[in-house]
Amino acid sequence: MLRRKPTRLELKLDDIEEFESIRKDLESRKKQREDAEAAAAGEEAAAIALGAEHKSREQIINDRIGYKPQPKAGGRAAHFGTFEF
């Protein structure tokens, strides 16, 4: 394999200005997103606190992910069918 001298990279003033502008833009977007999430979380907490029904942590998670558990049929009737005496 042939060896060559390392390439020299020069940092110019334009590059620094471009980096700073992009960094500020990303920071402002991040701050806006965090503010929006904080506001949404505050509204959710207020809705949960003021709501008439108090849900358990499991129910809140199930609602959030869209899971609706079906009750399991219990007893002998579920295994053998319905018998009427």
Automatic annotation (TrEMBL):
- The yes or no answer to whether the keyword Cell division is present is yes
- Coiled-coil annotation reads 9-39
Q: Enumerate the Gene Ontology biological process terms.
A: anaphase-promoting complex-dependent catabolic process; cell division; protein K11-linked ubiquitination; regulation of mitotic cell cycle
List, alphabetically, the Pfam families matched.
ANAPC_CDC26
Q: Where in the cell?
A: Nucleus
Extract the signal peptide range: none
Which keywords does this chain's UniProt record carry? Cell cycle, Cell division, Coiled coil, Mitosis, Nucleus, Ubl conjugation pathway
Q: In which pathway does it act?
A: Protein modification; protein ubiquitination
Which Gene Ontology cellular-component terms appear in the entry? anaphase-promoting complex
For whether the record's keyword set contains Isomerase, the answer is no
**Major localization class:** nucleus
| Chain segments carrying region Disordered | 66-85
The cross-references to PANTHER family, in alphabetical order and at most eight, read: ANAPHASE-PROMOTING COMPLEX SUBUNIT CDC26
Q: Which family does it belong to?
A: Belongs to the CDC26 family.
In Swiss-Prot or TrEMBL terms, this protein is called Anaphase-promoting complex subunit CDC26
* Protein's organism: Mycteria americana (Wood stork)
